[in-house]
Write a structure and sequence with these properties.
The protein is α/β, with parallel strands linked by helices. It has 13 helices and 14 strands. The radius of gyration is 23 Å and the shape is globular. The structure holds NADP nicotinamide-adenine-dinucleotide phosphate and ligand G4F.
Length: 375
């Protein structure tokens, strides 16, 4: 059975990738970081939570990443973790550079030092093209990063290439254009729109506040993009690929279609607020996926219209469930009983500690408390 390590398994892509690789018979290890609110709702809503071996690890904590690699001893590694929201990267440029950029070098070092001969996938981004003025972008198009996030992704993209060539690693970067789904974070514009429209249609809200409606993006469906990602690691040679639909649509197109689907007129509800504009906007992204079609045999089936319908309909379902008092696992309890957690407490060394606890003196101490003498 092939073993895989996925960082960022609690995120949109990590969850879909895990679902897909489970269907292919892989044993899945996934890293998650401790946050104050449990964040397993995507894995739970896909019904795969109890099938994942979860390892607590943070990209900023080299020790925990080494441990994740050691414990999982993977055949394939997918680095999906990043601080992925572009707007926040302007507010937290240093943190973003460390997580999205430098941490990738640390991860590659972990694989090198531990001599783990795994194939490595890096989640690169079309955001790296930035405002380069090109009307369609492919693997040869020059990059012109226009946010701290994009600059960090470009650094990571470069370092993956350095490790591939220096240490003969099978390391690839997928340059993925925007991909969305009902598992998308609510702050991204696609989900903000589908969710906002569903709330408005249900009479729970009366406005949707957005920023720049004229930016254009090449939006595809996340689940099928993960199939392309897997294919990249099944090739004979490590190469980078653009994954996209080849169509660009504006935020306004998304808004209009989403309101059409529920039979409402967007103009009545949409408000614009400067707060959602960026210091440096990427006006236009559209990817040429010919190489992926030719070499991977991959092609997107769900394009813009189907994607918007799929997202609006799913958000409508969720709000209907909510109104009927049914729950969706947004508020999953922390570590439900079916969780397969691999912590240092599940290691051998803790067994010897437990054995020691069985010794009579320790038992007495546990019962009566330590006999400390105070002056
Ligand atoms: P996402 O939903 O935001 O998921 C990001 C994941 O990274 C989450 O699991 C998050 O954990 C984890 N993470 C963040 N900081 C971390 C840290 N310090 N240590 C460990 N884990 C950390 O993003 P996504 O849409 O799935 O995207 C997956 C990857 O593809 C990201 O690298 C993103 O930059 C890249 N990408 C995405 C797109 C797109 O359109 N979706 C396009 C191109 C590239 P928490 O759940 O704890 O926050
Ligand atoms: O949905 P977005 O926040 O995605 P963005 O910035 O394109 O980044 C996403 O795709 C990248 C791939 O190209 C990934 F690497 C990255 O991790 C992330 O997944 O914004 C899309 C567009 C922007 O032009 C933004 O200015 O929508 C515009 N927009 C207009 N109003 C808004 C809003 N974006 C957000 N998030 N919220 C708004 O209210």
């Amino acid at each position: 059975m092939k073993k895989v390590l996925i960082t960022g398994i609690t995120g949109q892509d990590g969850a879909y990738l895990a679902q897909y690789l489970l269907s292919k018979g892989y044993k899945i290890y996934g890293t998650f970081r401790r946050i104050s609110t449990p964040n397993f709702w995507r894995l739970q809503s896909l019904g795969i939570y109890s099938k994942i071996n979860l390892i607590p690890a943070d990209l900023l904590d080299m020790g925990s990443m080494l441990e994740a690699v050691r414990v999982s001893d993977p055949d394939e590694v997918y680095n999906m973790a990043a601080s992925s929201y572009v707007s926040t990267s302007f507010e937290q440029a240093i943190g973003n550079s460390e997580i999205t950029g430098l941490a990738v070098t640390k991860f590659l070092e972990a694989l090198r030092v531990l001599r783990v001969d795994a194939k490595f996938y890096q989640a690169s981004s079309s955001e790296m093209y930035g405002n380069n003025g090109c009307t369609i972008q492919d693997e040869q198009t020059p990059f012109y990063p226009s946010s701290p996030y994009a600059a960090a992704k470009l650094y990571a993209h470069g370092i993956v290439n350095v490790y591939k060539n220096s240490y003969n690693m099978f390391a690839v970067a997928g340059i993925l254009f925007n991909h969305e789904s009902p598992l998308r974070g609510m702050e991204f514009v696609s989900r903000k729109i589908s969710n906002g429209v569903a709330e408005i249609a249900m009479g729970l809200k009366d406005e949707l506040v957005l920023g720049n409606l004229y930016a254009k993006r090449d939006w595809g469906y996340a689940a099928e993009y993960m199939e392309a990602v897997h294919l990249m690691l099944q090739q004979d040679k490590p190469e980078d690929y653009v994954i996209s639909t080849g169509e660009a649509h504006s935020v306004l197109d998304f808004v209009k279609l989403a309101f059409d689907i529920v039979g409402l007129t967007w103009k009545k509800y949409v408000k614009i607020n400067k707060r959602f504009f960026r210091p440096f906007e990427v006006d236009y992204l559209c990817g040429n996926n010919k190489k992926a079609k030719r070499k991977l045999g991959w092609e997107p089936k769900i394009k813009f219209e189907k994607l918007v319908k799929l997202m609006v309909n799913e958000d409508m379902n969720r709000w209907k469930m909510f109104v009927e008092g049914k729950t969706f696992p947004w508020d999953a309890p922390l570590y439900p009983s079916e969780a397969k957690l691999i912590t240092r407490s599940s290691e051998e060394n803790i067994n010897s500690k437990i054995k020691k606890l069985k010794n009579r003196q320790t038992q007495r101490m546990v019962k009566n408390g330590p006999s400390i003498k105070y002056k």
